[in-house]
Structure formats: C-alpha cells, structure tokens
Amino acid sequence: MVKKQFLCVELNEKQVQQLEDDFLESDIVNGDLIAVSFATVQGTVKVFNQNGDCLNTIYRNDKDWNVCLETMKVLKYYPQSTFGENQQYALVMASDNRTIQVHTNKLVYKIENAHQGMIRGLAIWEVNDGLNLKNIILSAADNDHTIKLWDGLDGQLLKEIKSSHSGLRWRSLHCYQENYKPTNKNYIVYGSKHGTLFIFSLPIHKK
Prior knowledge:
- By secondary structure, the protein is mostly beta strands.
- The protein has a domain at 28-166: YVTN repeat-like/Quinoprotein amine dehydrogenase (Methylamine Dehydrogenase, Chain H, 7 Propeller), CATH 2.130.10.10.
- The protein is 8% helix and 44% strand.
- The protein contains one helix and 16 strands.
- The longest helix has 16 residues, at 13-28.
- The radius of gyration is 17 Å and the shape is globular.
C-alpha cells in the first residue's frame, strides 16, 4: 500500500521558470547526450552528443514499433561498466505496442505489456540512496491511469500507483529528490487536464 500525499500548489515566477527549465532538460537531454527520433514506421532513433557526433543508431524492424520523442529518454548508468566496458548510457524507449525497451549498442532488456494502453509518459529518476545513484524508470499510460516505477537496471516493477481521479496529462510526468541529497523525501510531479499541478511523495524502497 503506497501512502500518497497530494498537494495543490501555487508557484511564484522564479519557481515556474525553474520548473520549466527542469522539464525542458529532462525531456530529451541527460548530461551531454541527446536522443532524436525519426518519424518512420520503424521508429529509427539516433543518439548524439552536444558536439553533433552520432554515438548510436537503433533501427527497428518490428511493424508494431513506433517511437515518438515524448516516450524516449536517455538514461545514464553508474558505474559506467554496468552494461559493458565504457558504456556510459542507455536509451529507454516506449512503443505503441505497450513495450518499454532499454538499449545500449544492443537490446539490454524489454518490458512487454507494461501498461494496458499506449504509453504516453516516460521519465528517468536518478535517486541517491545514500550509497550510490539508483536509476528508476517511470511510465504512465492512457487506459490504466497508473504510474509505474521500474528498476532501471533490470526492469523489475517496484511500485504501481493508481491516479485515475486527476485526469492526468502524462507528458508532464516529472520526478525529483529533495535537494539531491540522501533522503527519503522523494516526489513525483504531474499536471492534470484541469490545470492543477499535483505533487506526491513516497519511498522508493520496498517495504
């Protein structure tokens, strides 16, 4: 049972600007890496650094696979050798067929039937657990109105949160840890169709 603390907040101009900056940065950029999706049936994806060098190209041949910019994130892993020597990042993508895939230069793992509907929201949460940096993948979909938290290392489902009452706009899905220090105060932020910003906190560790 996940205890949720819902807040409706009013932000000042500085806070709004910071929130916008955070959302912009978290959409497609992580450090010096940028992921770009091409509008093809195959869902071709390229990963660039900020110098414009193409680091990776992923070609999909699955007719049911189509990836869009909103459902694709660059995920950095620590230590660098997690997925192989000198492999410093992975790419997380969600498809029209409800599948989440994690790629480096090859497929690392995939989560099939992650949601009941098309995945609309995807976020990467870098959480400091006091010992090292823990990567959490958050996803949200149309039909089941849930936010799901997955372990970024192996794709294991950590938590499932029902949020159907708010009329969610999943593309605003965002998450952060208070002051970016080791703490149990972790928050997920999302917006609703009726213009309200929701914030709720929860522990990320299993009980």
